[in-house]
Amino acid sequence: MVGVLSSEHAATASAAGVHHGEVSQKRLIRLQLALKWTLWKRSYRKNIGKLIGTIFGVLYTLGALVGLVFLFLGTTLWAGEGSTFPLIVRGLGALTVLLWFLIPVVAFGLDDTLDPRAFALFPRSAKELQPGMFAAAALSLPSLLTLIAIAIATGFELLWLIVFGQGAVWIILAALAVIPANLAAFALCLLLPRAWFAHSASRASSRSGREVGGILGFLLLFVVIYGFSLGMQRVSDLDFALLERVMPTVVEVLAWTPVGALFAVPMDLAEGRVLTALVRALIGAVTIVVVWLWWRRSIDASLTSALTGDTSSGDIKVSPLVPRLVAPSAFGAVMGKSLRYWRRDTRYLAALGIYPVIIVFFVAMGFMLPESRPMMLAMTILMCGMSGISLSNEVGFDGPSGWVNIVTGLPSRANLTGRIAAQAVLMVPGVVVATIAIPLLYGMAELMPMTVMISLGAMACGWGISMVVRVLLPYPSSPPGTNPMKDKSASSSNAMIAMTVAMVGVFVPLIPAIGIGIWGAVSGSLPLTLLAGVLALVAGAIVFLVGLRIAVVRLDARYPDVFQKVRNHV
């Protein structure tokens, strides 16, 4: 033995061939590419939802590429003069670069596959890691599809130069510049998200801050989707003449910014604007250099912050577990614990935040399309029922910590009703306000009592069914802090079966109330609408009590078996 090392260890440590720098730069790049490929393939294992989403995304993108081809054909060969083609190329180019930057900025939950912090323990600097990370950035489906779109645009740019170009000198200059300029723009597309990811990773922040950021990104994504849907509803009202006058100015302004400068260079040369092309090429080159250096600096900071750890949130304030207005008991403890989960756990925050976004969308849709107001009101009631089953796998959310409930002998009734009470405190006031305000806004005040009562009845049904589902069909969930956009548990077959059973179980008991409610709304009968509301409340109370009884009996008899199904996070 040599100190704490064996003779073999000492020989290995003193070997002349073991030293920093043994792996060459080219081999390091190959290793990073292989690592990226391996991680990309493994990300689809046991994640059927991601696989299905990727397939649909690729199919939609291929359809968009076909549409791009027809758009370019319509503005070149089929147009007759091809005067709008440069405008289209500049505008789409700027939009492409802008989207590559905005998506990682807006979608807080997305992470770089080759996170710089993962390399903190390796003896490599940011300068050495950066080329391989850049090469790995091109190894992705979005990169490949973007490159195909740029190749299509490049081919049509060359075709446009041959058919519509003015002057041999300008045609040659533009043809020589089109491929380097477009490839430089593609490189900028890859650099911008990588630099932002590294910058985000380098910022010292608490885990809760990152989790909240992920939720905000998740909700913002829904806002963008619903906003686009609302906009498409009024596309027929657009003033196309005004749009035709404004768009050239907007595109020209974007072409003077870093996001649109490089794609505009070939068209500038084709139009004989040499000075403009040179200035925009300089803007693009400077942008690439600045982003490259920013990325390197962020990688350096990430390598350091990964070893120093996250910053703390300051002094922790200890507060009583049981809420003030609840008597100290097992029920109060479960309720207080659940309220804390609702404030801190992203899995709960996502369920709490998404429903207001959807309801606001329904309200806006009703204002934009007045004939759809009855349907939007019905969809609001549907969302209220869905909120009741949003946590139908709450036993699965406990995961490994569920053993505490078993060994402490927590009463099953308190375990179930405490969680429901916490959700009710947060959601019932919002449901009541929404179901009062929406009929008033829509000019349907006479339906307000019915909508309030049916919504509360639907929520009660949801709570009753969710208690049954969570003890009969539990499934492992993702761990706390998981971003909703990366949650793998919701895509499992057990999750889909549980959600289907829960949705059917909520609305089947409400069928009589829904039928009478539609009859009363169509005929304008207040007694019928009130009867529908009362039936919904009665159905909700019955389903809640029956569901509670079934769940209590099941947990009392088989809680260890239920725990075995959810004791590990996925």
Describe this structure in words.
The protein is mainly alpha-helical. It has helices at about 5-15, 25-40, 50-75, 85-105, 125-135, 140-165, 170-200, 205-235, 240-255, 260-270, 275-310, 330-345, 345-370, 375-390, 395-400, 405, 410-440, 450-470, 495-505, 510-525, 525-565. Helix 2 crosses helix 5 (about 125-135), helix 6 (about 140-165) runs antiparallel to helix 7 (about 170-200) and helix 14 (about 375-390) runs parallel beside helix 18 (about 450-470).
Q: Please mark out the parts with pLDDT under 50 across 5 or more consecutive residues, or reply none.
A: 1-5, 9-18, 310-315
Structural class: mainly alpha
| DSSP strand count | 0
Distance between the termini: 44 Å
Keywords:
21 helices; about 0% strand; about 575 residues; mainly alpha; about 75% helix
Topology, element by element:
Elements: H1 7-13, H2 25-42, H3 48-75, H4 85-106, H5 126-137, H6 141-164, H7 168-202, H8 207-233, H9 240-255, H10 261-270, H11 274-308, H12 330-344, H13 346-368, H14 373-388, H15 394-398, H16 403-407, H17 412-441, H18 448-472, H19 493-507, H20 511-523, H21 526-566
Could you give a short description of this structure?
The chain has 570 residues and is mainly α. 74% of the residues lie in helices and 0% in strands.
